[in-house]
Structure to design on (146 residues):
């Protein structure tokens, strides 16, 4: 097993999902330069911008993020996204295995509305992700304005 179901990853996942915890993202990285063992790298409460700052251009990493947005003045929505990060400097063999190994991660981080495949930190633009989450959520009370 890849270690995606390690107790510290599961605890961080529950923290991100909890309405009572400030943690809104977690980051999973490979424990070593070779092999498939995963480990929790970091957690944070600063949203997508903070998460993007933590991504390593030379690695494949997996993140789970809580995104909150308002549909109108009366409502707030909470949605979750899985981020599969493949940094532009990642070695070829690690990139090749990411598609297979991301399946184990997504089984553990099961409750998400969208998957964001990213290789550039600009792929984590909050406005674009919120627009995708709105579309995935079905009802759009914002009149299609994103």
């Amino acid at each position: 097993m890849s270690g995606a179901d390690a107790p510290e990853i599961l605890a961080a996942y529950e923290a991100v999902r909890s309405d009572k915890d400030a943690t809104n993202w977690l980051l999973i990285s490979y424990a070593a330069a070779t092999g498939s063992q995963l480990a929790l790298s970091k957690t944070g409460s600063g949203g997508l911008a903070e998460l993007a700052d933590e991504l390593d251009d030379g690695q494949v990493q997996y993140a789970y993020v809580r995104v909150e947005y308002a549909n109108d003045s009366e409502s707030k929505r909470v949605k979750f996204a899985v981020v599969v990060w493949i940094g532009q400097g990642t070695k070829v063999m690690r990139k090749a295995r990411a598609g297979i190994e991301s399946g184990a991660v997504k089984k553990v981080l099961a409750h998400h509305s969208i998957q964001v495949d990213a290789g550039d930190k600009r792929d984590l633009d909050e406005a674009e992700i919120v627009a995708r989450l709105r579309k995935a959520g079905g009802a759009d009370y914002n009149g299609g304005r994103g």
Summary: The chain is about 35% helix and 30% strand. Helices lie at 7-17, 47-54, 92-108, 126-137.
